[in-house]
């Protein structure tokens, strides 16, 4: 793999106060991964081409260029090409995704960046292992001047995204050991989309835990509620859900300043994220919260202060709320100076969400003046990290999309333990009855593989509970 | 994208098959306006240049030249297949895809299975191999037959073993018409039980259907149509009930309307694999999600709205009503009451302008009144296909792996025993080479074992759902 520093750009960057960003290669897997991937690139592109962004023209251009370098390469005729590899076991979704992007006329996918077989994987985790995918990824990597790492978008419930996702991540680990890998995993609705989703989930998570650097989790149930309660959408479609998701991801991955008040945008998005949020390999599960989130109509009539936004965001974190409505304000951090309240139990209802690490990303007007002191409270964090190491904030003047002020919180905390525990519990019950196992053994996944997965995940649950 | 081959066996199988091909053509004609041979059509049809003599005429892309069904037609009498070949669909079938005989199986499973099986095995293999060669990626065989007769039942199930041996990777979906209580074929219990053993052992998925349920559904539609309140405006584009395209009185040809229901079932089953949608479901996902244990592969189906099949304009029911109807015993294609039995798994395949929130809302609404087995409390598999069936805005196909199939099997077994105890008509079977009494006793044991599985599951119905103790790990 080639990791060249863009020397020419370096000088150019110094002159304009601009360092070009390292690039991220996105791998979109399965129907879910491809549908979401399209929305993510679309959101990133549209945001970066927002006319003014509430900042100076020069800043805006720097932002645009940085975003472009991260996520797009350029074709001869100037149309940006997403730095992405599209993978699916059957052609319908990829074809749709390619044409949707091409139709927009603003950006598109590379025609030859797709891998597709003829037959779907049948929701069977064990299905589908191909070398050609790695070749496509290599081609995309070679187009990058400097590679930050890989962003793999996949669902956990199906067969292609989940099984193939685990396989691809393992291969990336083997072939690109110095590049970072972040997996964007979609957790299915609790009430089934796929009957064997819990099996697929535990197999996927356990394998990813070994080969991925960070797991950024989005739960369909949570995003669905955001659509219903905050966006006021009546008939929610997967497109709506994916757009909310894309918005959240965009608010994390768009360029941010690396220093106070300078034009230096951070160069290494994945590296910076991991450095801040994954201090220990046993704790890899990250969640995103975003505020404010609302329909564009309501946006025009709303104003927010940083104080208000941050106050809500903090309470969302500690009470484990996924959105700014229905927050439980009763939940309080344990009083500092006193011993912790006792180990977390997955059964207790009201629970204070302890964090390992948090990253707040502020975008918009007067971001530099926002006071994030409340996030530095040691009571929010587990005892084995100092808040100065556990908490980071990135502030950028340039606004995100139409939000005059917006804040994102990426956290490594206990908030995913309960959902994980539920999934493991249901999978365990099903496993005990031996239901559906013959479908997996047919393709080489044995009972021992299941047991290994259970063991690993019980360990993860216990580790998070003991924070 | 993958292809499927339909194998229609016997009189019933071929009549249903014929309806299916008619509807499939109409559906693709309605969806594919430009006449381009695309992947959706290729799932069931080949594109052939008829000017080229012989077999080399397949065209894989471009404009549609002449569509040929991916089908093999088998019947040991000539009547039905001949009628098809003289009817409006004659050009859709390749004359090389047929296997016919003259004498028929005499409603005798043994004749169909043993006599014609061995007689035609090579020919059958040859036709199947040919049809597979024409496929880029063959995923599934759809077998359509009845259980009560001789050819569909005997030869149809003989086929299964051939398919399993020759194409082990390809799914075998069987649509089986079970005999109703008042069946006019006396030996239908023998034929059905003997066929059941084969279905148990060699089918991946079986969709049992009975004539009585189909008839009841048609009667309900008739009542709705003739009640006079709604008027009888004929819908210009809806799926008509006879292959000549003319609206025929139901009293004249009830089987046509009944066959159409089954044909629609197959269309809807494959729609999410053929057409786009926000949550696709391929055919192999059906087996993967709905068959928790290899023997328990019988799926009760229900289609709503029913009036998909009528030619009249009935105002669209509310979307939620469609979901409720799918779980009512009046809409099942076999006499069964899934609501009061135990669900092992349930698939909801929606077509049309329906979004994930509609689906979720209805699952939440209906869940409390349904009983799912303890280890699969959220046993739902869902799919959303954007393309609705012709002439309607949306439709729902529900497939349930539910213990409510048990009564059908129990009744079948009882009817069998009543006959077998008296050794009635047994000699017709035993005189066939290869048939012995042990064939019967093995078949009954196979069915009894299956019934016992369902009994055991039913016994867990009222038990409280407990979470099992989890693994203990040291941290």
TrEMBL record, chain B:
Keywords, comma-separated and alphabetical: Cytoplasm, Cytoskeleton, GTP-binding, Microtubule, Nucleotide-binding
Residues annotated as domain Tubulin/FtsZ 2-layer sandwich: 279-414
Superkingdom in the source lineage: Eukaryota
GO terms, molecular function: GTP binding
Alphabetized SUPFAM superfamilies for the sequence: Tubulin C-terminal domain-like, Tubulin nucleotide-binding domain-like
One Gene Ontology cellular component annotation held by this UniProt entry: centrosome
Primary site of residence: cytoplasm
Sequence ranges assigned to domain Tubulin/FtsZ GTPase in this UniProt record: 49-277
Protein localization: Cytoplasm, Cytoskeleton, Microtubule organizing center, Centrosome
One Pfam family linked to the record: Tubulin_C
Gene Ontology biological-process entries: microtubule-based process
InterPro entries xref list: Epsilon_tubulin, Tub_FtsZ_C, Tubulin, Tubulin/FtsZ_2-layer-sand-dom, Tubulin/FtsZ_GTPase_sf, Tubulin_C, Tubulin_CS, Tubulin_FtsZ_GTPase
Oligomeric form and interacting partners: Found in a complex with TEDC1, TEDC2, TUBE1 and TUBD1.
Family: Belongs to the tubulin family.
Protein name, per record: Tubulin epsilon chain
Organism (species): Capra hircus
Gene (name only): TUBE1
